[in-house]
Amino acid sequence: MSEEIKLQLKGCKVINGTITCKTGLHIGGTAETIEIGGMDNPIIKHPITQLPYIPGSSIKGKMRSLLEWKLDNFQRNGDVHQYDDRKCLREKCPICRIFGTSSDKAQIGPSRLIVRDAFLTENSQKKLEELKKQKGLMYAEEKTENTINRLSARANPRTQERVPADIVFEFEMIYRLFELNNDRGKVDEELFRYVEEGIRLIQTDALGGSGSRGYGKVEFEYEVKDCPLETKSEEVKANDKLQNLQSDPKD
Questions:
Q1: 115: CB partners within 8 A, 6+ apart
Q2: What is the Cα–Cα distance from 135 to 23, expressed in whole angstroms?
Q3: pTM of the predicted model, to two decimals?
Q4: Which residue, among 30, 22, 62, 18, has the nearest Cα to 161 in the 3D structure?
Q5: Confidence band, pLDDT 50/70/90 cuts, at residue 102
Q6: SS3 for 97?
Q7: What is the mean pLDDT of the chain?
């Protein structure tokens, strides 16, 4: 029988900042209908505004895969890392804690890291609207590439959509600090360095597709703020004060 775990949320770290595309960025979307001469490699866009955005899953997934490579911590068949009760708990596995595990044996609580979708800054949205107005492009550049048959020299052109260089997105991540089995949240606090390491690794690697061909070089700028849950908002403090006055009219 497994021991009962003690788990309490103690606070969080809020990471706010920007992601600047240093080269064209391609995070694939779905071509619902492909017309003759239409785009067969579109980027993902908001279904209502049609403006490009970066899904949080793309950022989080890239951080995880790069950290698994760096820590030599993935399955030998190439699958993503799976919880191993002989190693992960003893070694305070950063992959399981930060990115989560579905194993019932783990008993370490939920994924510590939340990565929200990243949307265009106001200035970058204006740039893409101007691009659409002047060139008729749907908030993205269209990059034509080609492959050449090595024997016949027959060309096979294809067109890909990309977010142009110099476009900026705003992003937010939340890193939750849990006290697990009376560790006072120290383990999660220590493992936060891997979150920042994951961000650095994306900068040296690439985000999205075709990174080995010049796509997806990005730059992060951000700040980290501690957010202890014990901190009460001014509204909550005012309510507490009112309740105290009502319970003790002499104050």
A1: 56, 57, 59, 60, 63, 171, 173
A2: 20
A3: 0.84
A4: 30
A5: confident
A6: helix
A7: 87
| Closest-CA residue to 187 (of 4, 10, 3, 2) | 10
Considering only CA atoms, which of 16, 45, 19 is closest in space to residue 169? 19
249 burial class (0-12, 13-18, 19+ CB within 10 angstroms)?
A: exposed
What mean pLDDT is predicted for residues 76-103? 85
* CA separation for the pair 246, 251 (Å, rounded): 9
Give the tens place of pLDDT for each residue, 105-114: 888 889 999 9
Alpha helices in the chain (DSSP H): 56-70, 94-99, 122-135, 186-204, 234-247
User: Which has more pLDDT, 138 or 14?
Assistant: 14
Spatial distance between the Cα atoms of 163 and 187, rounded to a whole number of angstroms: 38
**Cα dihedral angle (84, 86, 92, 94), rounded to 10 degrees?**
-30
Instruction: Count Cβ neighbours within 10 Å for each residue of 155-164 and write b for 16 or more, e otherwise.
Output: eeeeebbbbb
Closest by CA position to 66, among listed 102, 95, 97? 95
Contact 137, 74 (CB under 8 A): no
Q: Could you tell me which of 218, 217, 215, 219 has the C-alpha nearest to residue 26?
A: 215
What is the rounded radius of gyration, in angstroms, for the C-alpha atoms of the chain?
Answer: 23
User: Which residue type does 141 have?
Assistant: E
Tokens of 182: 């009376």
Amino acid identity at 113: L
